[in-house]
Amino acid sequence: MAPIIKLESVHYGYTSSHIALADISFGIEKSEIFTVIGSNGCGKSTLLHIMGGLLFPREGKMFFNDKEVSEPRLSDANFNKYFRSNIGFVFQNSDIQLFCPTVKDELLFAPQQLAISEEKAQSMVQEVMKMLEIEYLADRPTYMLSGGEKKRVAIGSVLTMNPEVLILDEPTSGLDPKTSAFLIELLFRLNEAGKTIIMATHRLELVNHFQSRVLVLSEKHTIEKIGSSEEILSDKDLLLKTNLISEYPHQHNGVIHKHLTTGFLFHKHNNNTH
Amino acid sequence: MNREIPSFLLENGRQIPLLIEKGQKIKMTFIDRTIKSTFSFIWESILQYELSLNRLGFQRLSSTGILIFFLIYIVCINLTHSLYGHLIFAALIFGLLLTTSIRLSAVYVKAIILSFLFGFLVMVPACLNIFAPGEVVLTLARFQSEKKFLIYHLPEVVGITYEGIVLVLRMFFKVFNSVSLTFLVIYSVPFERLMKSLRLMKVPSIFILIITMSYKFIYTMALTIEEMYLALKSRWIGNFSQDKTRHIIAGRMGFLFRKSYQRYEEVYKAMISRGFTGDVIIKTNEKIKLKEACLLIVLIGAGVIISILKF
User: Fold this and answer.
1) Does pTM surpass 0.90?
2) Residue A174 belongs to what H/E stretch?
3) Which structural domain, as residue segments, surrounds residue A216?
4) Which site among B2, B7, B14, B18 would you substitute to test the A interface, given the most A Cβ atoms closer than 10 Å to its Cβ?
5) Which of A219, B41, B73, B250 is the most buried (most CB within 10 A)?
6) Which of B3, B24, B232 is opposite residue A131, by nearest beta carbon?
7) Domain check: are A74 and A43 in the same one?
8) CA B83 to chain centre
9) pLDDT for B175
10) Among chain B residues, CA nearest to A128
11) ipTM here
């Protein structure tokens, strides 16, 4: 089966010396959970923006369901509707994603554009609000929400579009543990229903939770490795090289010492010493 | 998970299909284009910073030296009346650009566009004998007799005069030289260093601080506008009516205003927390060395001579 998203030798640079991505080629299968990891500034968000048809490669090609996605192609209303309605993008900063006057307007935005009947659109919005527990926010202006509420509304605004592919940039950033757990469970359920989940993160525990296929971006903006989460998370040298783990000083029983830690990986103590 | 997932999300294969026929062309609205061009400011700033890092030739001068050179040359260019004088200035700026790492196209494409708009187009009527009396070199219209209307006098023959052409060319080169000189300077020194050197010229610190903060503020806001634009684009399906676009853009402007206000408060708190009491101390080591001073004297002297000589 052809991959749902495919990138061929993609290069992207903001200026000639400001390279964000270099020679990126890979494919993502339908109904797959795919994670892009890498240190800050390695090009994760740029890669997601290219997959979401928001930026276009300087060189190389991007395909969605075997159809090339380019700026001229997206100026065709039919292709635009097909592509945009099938790809839902959740931005890291929810603030910038919410542009309608109220929460309900925000959730209604996509169904209205897709010309879904008013009655059906209202029922879809109600169901999504109920699931995300944001019914009480329906008439509230989007700027009067807390960080967690904004994230829920941003996710809701994409879900009412019912996209085939869900792209999430740092999905759990700024969320409390309960909301994070809820989001992870939601993504699992959506994946079970056949949706493709693509996300970018530098939190290795998220990769461990999802047990997904993982693409590691190097600090040189190229693909360092693509593999299963077990394969990637057990490769200490790779994680060190790509600056995903580091030596942290911390304290145990009054002793300050340093060792590799990401919060859960390679964090072992010798009880005889400390 | 206790909360139930809506059934429509769990149904597979009900996605929007791709229609075979070509659809209507999506038009980028004027407002949309404006947003897009706003964040080109970011890449201009990065370009400026990167170009000024490769210090070659003219770029090796201190920012204070470059600033003094700029201020004197701008005055000289604007006081020059001779067309030949302007041509010599253009050649001099070109020569200085050649010594740097700056791409000529980065400067001249913008300089030509701006000088065409503000130096040539607005001055074109001035080449007619109505405004610039003299020898007509190209006749455009011929009337049976002279006409007078209020303060205007329309001669029998209306045409382009030699004096008019010189006047238009002089104005064109005045703008062209000023713009290319400005680009030479901004691509030679990073903005922050240029601001610091203003301090040596006794410009009040608070004024420098305000300019620097405004620049950073525009940069940060341009980044926010870029993110907003991408977020809007990701959910922008098909064509929007102008009304709907205006509604969304107005909402986004409101958001930017709130964001600006929040940021202003945060920056002020950050300044207070680091001991800001109203006085700003800006130190700079951008002092002019002897060798540089000699070079500047030669350059500035040449500029002054060109501007006062009558060719």
Assistant:
1) no
2) none
3) 5-98+163-243
4) B18
5) B73
6) B3
7) yes
8) 25
9) 93
10) B6
11) 0.70
